[in-house]
Amino acid sequence: MQGNLREIDIYSILRVIEAGQRTGLLFVETCNSNHCKQQTYFIFFSDGQIIYATYGDTSLSRLKDYLHLYDGHIKLDRSSVNTHMGLDIPEYQCLRQLLAENRINPMQAHSIIYGLVREILFDLLSLHQGRFIFDSTSLLLPHFNVLKITPILSQVIKQIQDWKQLYPYIQSPDQCPVLVDMAKLHSVLPPATMTKLEHWADSKTSIRQLARYLNCDIFTLAKAIYPYVENRWVKIAPLANLNQDGHQPTQELESKSEKHIACISNKDDIIQAMESALKAHGYKVTALTNPLESISFLFKLQPNFIFCQIAMPELDGYEICSMLRNSTVFMEVPIILVAEQEKLLSSIKAKIIGATDYLTVPFGNNDLVMLVEKYLASDMTSKINNIYNTC
After folding, report:
1. Is pLDDT at 303 greater than 80 in this prediction?
2. Dihedral in degrees, nearest 10, Cα atoms 81, 83, 89, 94
3. Which of 166, 251, 279, 298 has its Cα between 20 and 30 A from that of 115?
């Protein structure tokens, strides 16, 4: 089952999955344009019930937000978490590890998963364009939690309807409250409440994050601050100059001439095309034609950017990418997997195992250079660090 969201909406897709008692992965990808930020979502099902849901970036920062409720000092080391059946979902694996170590109990794990699923559904049910695919071969095992689709759909739909009451003052749970008129706020709020507001309303913490910290519904929280926004004592700002998880970006990247790009491929035409385009734009390029030897060379070279062909003998691009992502050396490095034909399932697998993006052969020189500059100039190394760092 696959298609376009203009043809069938998320609500209908979920009801089909429930009615058919299907098991597998629903992958949803939004558009990518100047007016629409690209985002990916994963929802895992077992017999028509939801096991887990997460964003395509598989960040651990959301899990950290929820764990703050139980123990703000819990540390999670992604490198110590083993993947299962080829699916690298760090959030889920870390949650399983916490349960196995008795650092959280099953009820707390259920509460965290419930919150994460509701977040994803809130975003997905508001979508009107994008593409989706349901893959019955992608399984998340073992699972320890299931959520019935119809009850949670009803709750989220009501949440979305309630949210519309806040327009136009508050439009998105990803907006950040900022204190504007301190004197007026001090005059109407208790000192303890004001102290909390001063701590959290820092233009860096979104309404969604605050709801996680405080263990409350996003609409309940937004409705509480709505009167102050309406009176212009509190300003609602977008996540400007911040990455998706609300962390400050790192310092400006090095100049182009200092950037080293590694290209892993056993195809001469691919190597030649990449070397020609990238060197012409001032990048240092190293070609690695033996996939088995490439891993050790990469640790010696420590490049700033990696292109890796998927289909190669002995060791394919998925395996190389997965190995690199399990090393602290390459947690922050953009890795682009290269395929000789576009397949949606291949691009899904690339995202799951931690690839930054997916490139299809043949490609134009401008497309190649723009892809590199997109992830270097836009500070993507900081974003990937948030995906694979420790909490």
Report:
1. yes
2. -30
3. 166
